């Protein structure tokens, strides 16, 4: 059944007009009055809805029963990712949503190829948030991950508490790490998990030292060096297999 994100409050039996972008999607799918769709607003759960009428720019639906369904893993992972170039970041965010990431923090570092600031950074943030919405529509998640504004790694680390809180786990993926992924706890931690991954050129030794000084544990993923857009997907899939996220 087609699923659509609606960024507003939903209530059973209410008649609502779908946002313009959802109306365009409904038209592309050639849906008709009487067809049933699923709506969610990113705060949890979903509603069935019946299409009542369609015009060129408007689609009206009657919101049906609420379904308390979630597709979230039994842990929360923030992916703090060095911004990748071209369309790599788009692909990475799309797949990371499917694999259960709950938040994204785009980062710039000393070796970053891509530099974002000002209006360009704001546009990219909005673009990535739309990718999150579309990925949630496709994969069945009803809670919308958040994409934070792009920040410099030093400023972002400085905004974190120096020591992780109770049950919190901070992981730095590094080819220089001595700790193997297999040594991580078998059970998911009770608090937030943050996975920190460098840009195409990786983090400098000074940036890695700064991360370690803020409670990150440097973890390796084996003898092969993964590309930045591969590393996040690999570790999210591995955590899902290890911590019951499938």
Write the topology of this structure.
Blueprint: E1 3-5, E2 15-17, H1 20-28, E3 36-40, E4 46-54, E5 59-67, E6 77-82, H2 88-98, E7 103-108, H3 118-139, E8 146-147, E9 151-152, H4 153-159, E10 169-173, E11 179-180, E12 193-197, H5 205-212, E13 217-220, H6 228-243
Parallel strand pairs: 1-3, 6-7, 6-12, 7-8, 7-9, 10-12, 10-13, 11-13
Antiparallel strand pairs: 2-5, 3-4, 4-5
Structure description:
It is a single chain. By secondary structure, this protein is an alpha/beta fold. It has 2 domains: 3-67, Beta Barrel (Ribosomal Protein L25, Chain P), CATH 2.40.240; 77-243, SPOUT methyltransferase, trefoil knot domain (Alpha/beta knot, 3-Layer(aba) Sandwich). The chain has helices at residues 20-28, 88-98, 118-139, 153-159, 205-212, 228-243; strands at 3-5, 15-17, 36-40, 46-54, 59-67, 77-82, 103-108, 146-147, 151-152, 169-173, 179-180, 193-197, 217-220. Strand 3 and strand 4 form a beta hairpin. Helix 2 (88-98) runs parallel beside helix 3 and helix 2 (88-98) runs parallel beside helix 6. The chain is elongated.
Task: Report a brief summary of the structure.
The chain is α/β, with parallel strands linked by helices. Helices cover about 30% and strands about 25% of the residues.
């Amino acid at each position: 059944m087609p699923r659509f994100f609606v960024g507003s409050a939903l209530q059973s039996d209410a008649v609502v007009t779908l946002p313009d972008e959802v109306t365009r999607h409904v038209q592309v799918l050639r849906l008709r009055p009487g067809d049933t769709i699923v709506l969610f607003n990113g705060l949890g759960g979903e509603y069935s809805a019946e299409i009542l009428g369609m015009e060129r720019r408007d689609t009206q639906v009657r919101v049906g029963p609420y379904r308390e369904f979630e597709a979230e893993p039994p842990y929360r992972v923030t992916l703090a990712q060095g911004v990748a170039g071209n369309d790599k970041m788009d692909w990475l965010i799309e797949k990371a949503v499917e694999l259960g990431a709950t938040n994204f923090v785009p980062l710039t570092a000393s070796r970053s190829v891509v530099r974002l600031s000002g209006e360009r950074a704001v546009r990219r943030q909005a673009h990535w948030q739309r990718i999150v919405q579309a990925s949630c529509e496709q994969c069945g998640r009803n809670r919308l991950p958040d994409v934070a504004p792009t920040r410099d790694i030093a400023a972002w680390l400085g905004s974190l508490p120096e020591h992780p809180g109770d049950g919190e786990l901070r992981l730095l993926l590094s080819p220089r790490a001595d700790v193997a992924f297999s040594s991580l706890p078998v059970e998911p931690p009770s608090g937030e998990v943050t996975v920190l991954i460098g840009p195409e050129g990786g983090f400098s030794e000074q940036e890695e030292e700064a991360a370690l000084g803020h409670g990150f544990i440097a973890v390796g993923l084996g003898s092969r060096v993964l590309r930045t857009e591969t590393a996040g997907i690999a570790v999210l899939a591995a955590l899902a297999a290890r911590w019951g996220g499938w």
